[in-house]
Amino acid sequence: MPSSVHEPVPDSGPVRGSARRPLVVALLAAALAAAPGAQAAADSDPAVSRAPEGASAVLDRLKTYGQAVLHSGDGSVRQIPAGLYEMRVDGGGMLQTYGVGVAGNAQPQARYTESGWAGSPLAGNREAGRIRWVLEHSYPQLNDLAGLAKVAGAGALTAESAAAGTQVAIWRLADGVQVEAADPAAEKLADYLQRQAGQLPEPPASLGLDPGGVSGAVGTRLGPVTVRTGARSVSVIPDAAAVAMGVRVVDAEGRPLQSAVNGSRLYFEVPAGTPDGTASVTVQGATEVPVGRVFTSGVPAQAQIVAGSSESAAAATATAVWPEPPVVQAAATAGGNAVTPAGQPGSQSAAAQTTPDSSDEGRLAISGSSAATPFIASLAVGLVVLGGLVVLLLRKRPLDEEDGHA
User: Fold this and answer.
1) Which domain holds residue 389?
2) 187 and 63 within one domain
3) Which of these three, 322, 345, 364, is where a domain ends?
4) For residues 196 and 184, what is the distance between their CA atoms, to the nearest angstrom?
5) Mind listing the pLDDT tens digit for each residue in 383-396?
6) 190 and 221 share a domain?
7) N or C: which end of the chain has fewer CB within 10 A?
8) How many structural domains does the chain have?
9) What pLDDT, in 10s, does the model give residues 52-84?
10) What is the pTM of this model?
């Protein structure tokens, strides 16, 4: 794999004259990028902030495999095993997986959690959809080995050679490495899969809640949180702290929920007078983990991608926070625009800003403040701090004087 080479930067001597101006600009950009508001904006990305969802599992072992030959960038050649792993799902179930990266030596008994592509080594990889195509069109999803061998022109395939050929194709797409299967039939399968692979979309989580967090005011229903799953039904379990505070998990009509199905919408009903706090709800069920879901262990090179699944246990959690964080809103006045904190005289609450055709459900649901609010506040603080820094730099050595002596 290619590596980055950084050329040494020559020493240009002291910063003089107008060269200090780019320094000021660079400091300003760096400070704004590191501002809490910028971090808050990044944290609002669903791929970053989403709570864990789906299944968790322990890697068992490499079960069905052959051999592959890997050519490294330094010219070395080595033989490595290539094929299907098995994973034991917490709470029951089994998974069959392939390795995502060729460099990782997946460790038996390592713990893994289900992940979307954005939280895995496939993030930003344009070949991710083609890898899913390979999984859907090869072993073990297609276990008619004679038929698979025929379409691939591979002669005769065994389970071991089919698994090896599939793994090799995945490595080529995921890493762009030079690797081939040691068995000629497996190599023909790998070539066929790589050549024919089309793009497929990312599969959904085996069980997820969307969004993973809501906020709002006391005395309202916070939500909705939508259940996304292939399970026939899931259990709805509020946390003990929520129950103790009188917070209930209900449907849109206010009926308590103990179970839900795909598409069900959940709300946190927070009684008036409840002290500021948080609550969570967990949904649990059993379903097959979709082919193409990734499992990560904290070591990127050891990520696994699902090729087959039994019915497996899965869970997801969503959290509610109240009261709703304060929102700075713009209110029109006769003299122009005035910025008024939400909840103060002259302001309008988020719940009141509904259009005439808003549904009753929309009026009840309060899902939180604008993501821009913390960014605006942090930007103001950052500018104040940077202003002081710039003044200190300029007072230390006036620019005009330095230009004259450059």
Assistant:
1) 17-44+375-405
2) yes
3) 322
4) 18
5) 544 555 444 444 54
6) no
7) C
8) 3
9) 689 999 999 999 999 999 999 888 999 999 999
10) 0.69
